[in-house]
Each structure stands twice: as structure tokens, then as C-alpha cells.
Amino acid sequence: MSQPRNGTPGDVEEIHWPSLVAAVSSISAVGIAIGLGLPLLSIILEKRGISSTLIGLNTAMAGIAAMVAAPITTKLAHKYGVAPTMMWAVLISALSALGFYYAQDFWMWFPLRFAFHGATTTLFILSEFWINAASPPAKRGFVLGIYATVLSLGFAAGPLIFSLLGSDGILPFLVGAGAILLAAIPIFIARYESPVLDEKPELHFMRYVFLVPTATAAVFIFGAVEAGGLSLFPIFAVRAHFTESQAALLLTMMGVGNVIFQIPLGLLSDRIKDKRPLLALMALTGFVGTMMLPVLVNNWILMAGLLLFWGGCVSGLYTVGLSHLGSRLTGSDLAAANAAFVFCYAVGTVAGPQVIGAAIDVAGNNGFAYAIAGFFGLYALLAGIRLLFLGKRA
Fold it and tell me: Are 153 and 34 in contact (CB under 8 A)?
């Protein structure tokens, strides 16, 4: 059967395009705003003479807000509906994005960060739940690959817009807030198509973290490696005697890998009933690739080729992990598990930079590679143990 209009989410046979267009386009508009906002806010604080430590502390509010928002999102969606909750989240995130321009006192940026990233976390959770609910099992990986690709392009467009607009005046803030408000249009159009959560989740929120551990652990590793890798790779590259422009291009290669590998990996996951072997293989590939970084550090071309594939493997953990989640659960349980999924991602984004940064201090520049390889290795070990000893269990 097809997805019922304003009905309870379940397995569908055909791609439900109105829902998918609404969810994908709305969250991609938010991705543009986040990609624009992160460098914009850091540059403005730098101009104001705020120390790097305090800038980092303010930025860390994103992860804290996500961890707070994740457990309450499904409760709000159950009480008020998926589409109305998303509309309110759009409004809050747009107003807080614009609020940064008017907030002259630094302390005001902490509640603004909390409001902005808490609201965008709600949008991510409910968009991904909506996409999973509207995707047929046989094509779920393909659909999630499209979602991840478009979202990656949105994130990439943000810094490009920033490079064109600069950090002066209200214009970049208006563009960011405007991009977020545009997300309300497809949500409003497809509001009657959004899944309904008639029942409360059967388990406490934290139980969902451990209900499908192969998926939640995958997104924790993704968050840790993405946040830690992107923030600290320039330091690793410059210390390895690459120029700043060469380091930036290497980061770009990682981003390109992120974009081009999502749909192929999604299609591959659709052909595999059990997604866990693919997740384990990507983690193992990430482990081997990371351990090769110190070996290839003197050859920019080989390093760029490695990071192209490495970027695809890292981001594939998110796409395939989300597909695995959708293949295991439906309805309110899927919504709650999606919240747990994003919660684990947020924890990873907080833990990753701390662990990788400490590893560099302790083991020198190669500590960057060793710490990331450690994350990948632990996940590959977890996935392997569960495959060998727990059979069909998640």
C-alpha cells in the first residue's frame, strides 16, 4: 500500500514524493544556513576580540543543545504533530539566527546558540523520521542517499555564500534567516502528508540508544570523526608541511567524497538485507585509510585521493546507519530511535574534538590519525562481535 494521507507511518511500496520533497528541501535550507552561520559567527567573534577558547566554548553549545533537544522532540511531535512542531522549530531557528546580529553582549550568544541548534536538531530528527516513514524498504537507502547528498550540498553552499557576502552588516544574517524560513514552505504544503504519532514510544528514550546499537554507535563515530577531523585536520596538514591552501583543498576532497558516495552507498545498502556487514566494512576501510595518513603525508596527490574515498566512508556511516534504523523500527518507535540517533551524533561531535585534540598533544601530529583510527577500530570491533555472536539481533 502507499503511505496514507495524514496516517500512521509504516512500510510503503512506492516513494512518497510530496513527503520526501518537503523533508529533504526543508532540512537542506537549514543546512545552507548552518554552513553560512558557523564561519560567520566565528569570524565576528574573532573581530570582537573574543578568545579562541571562548569561541570554542560558545560553539560547543551546539552539541549541548542537540543533546537536550533530542529526548523531547518526539514528545512535542506526539503532542502537537510532526509538521506543526517543525514549523515552530523553523520560526525559532530563524529568529535566533537573526538575533545574533542584534546581540552585542557576548553572553547573549550562549542562549541564542542553544535556541538555534536546539531548534535545528528538532528539524533534523523529524525530517529524517519523515523520510524514513515515507520510504519503501527496498528503496530506503537510495532515498537516504539523496537526502545526504542534497544536505551535503547545502552545507557546502553555506561557506560559498559566506565568501560572497562577507561578515559585515545585517545582510548575511538576513540571508541565513531567510534560508531557514524558506524551509517552512514545503513543510506547510505537505503538512497533511506528515506521519502521525498516535502512540507514545514503548521504551524510555535512553533505551533506544541501545536498542539498535549498530546504528547509534555508527552515528556516534561519524559525529566524532566528522567534528574532530574537520576541525583539527588543518592543524595536522599544516604541521605536516602543507600550505594552508593545500590543506583547504584536501578538506574539499573530503567534502567531494561525502557528496558523490552517498547515493551509490544507499543503493548498495538497498541490495543488502542486513546493513551491519556494510557498516563494518566502511569502518574497517576508514581504519585502514586513517592509518595510511602518516605514510602518505609527503604526497599531496595520494593524500587527496585517499581523503576522497575516506570522506565517503565516514559519511556513509550516517546514511547506512539511518537506513539500518529504518529497517528495524516503525511508527513512534522509529521517531524515538531517530531522536536517539541524533543524540548519539551530538555526543560524538562533543567527544571527537576532545579525544583527537588530546591525542595530538600526547602523541604528536600523528596522534590525529591514531585517534581517528581508534574510533573506526572500536566500531568495526563492535559490529564484528555483534555479527558473529548475536546473529540477527541489531
Answer: no
Query: What is the C-alpha separation between 348 and 114, in angstroms, rounded?
Result: 17
156, 185, 184, 14: which is closest to 93 by C-alpha? 184
Distance separating alpha carbons of residues 117 and 67, to the nearest angstrom? 10
Q: Virtual CA dihedral for 10, 13, 17, 22, nearest 10 degrees? A: 20
Please classify residue 241 by burial: count the beta carbons closer than 10 Å to its beta carbon, then call 0-12 exposed, 13-18 middle and 19+ buried.
Answer: exposed
d(CA 43, CA 166): 9
pLDDT at res. 4: 38
Question: From residue 136, how far is each of 1, 119, 261, 381 by CA, in Å?
Answer: 10, 28, 21, 31
Give residue-wise pLDDT tens across range 65-109. 988 998 899 889 988 999 999 999 999 999 999 999 999 899 999
Residue 198's identity, in one-letter code, is: D
Phi-psi region of 166 (alpha: psi -120 to 50; beta: other; left: phi over 0): left
Distance CA 26, CA 179 (A): 9
pLDDT, averaged across the chain = 84
- Compute how many other C-beta atoms are within 10 angstroms of the C-beta atom of residue 108: 13
Determine what percent of the chain is predicted with pLDDT higher than 90.
27
Please answer whether residues 341 and 262 qualify as being in contact, where contact means their C-beta atoms are separated by less than 8 angstroms. no
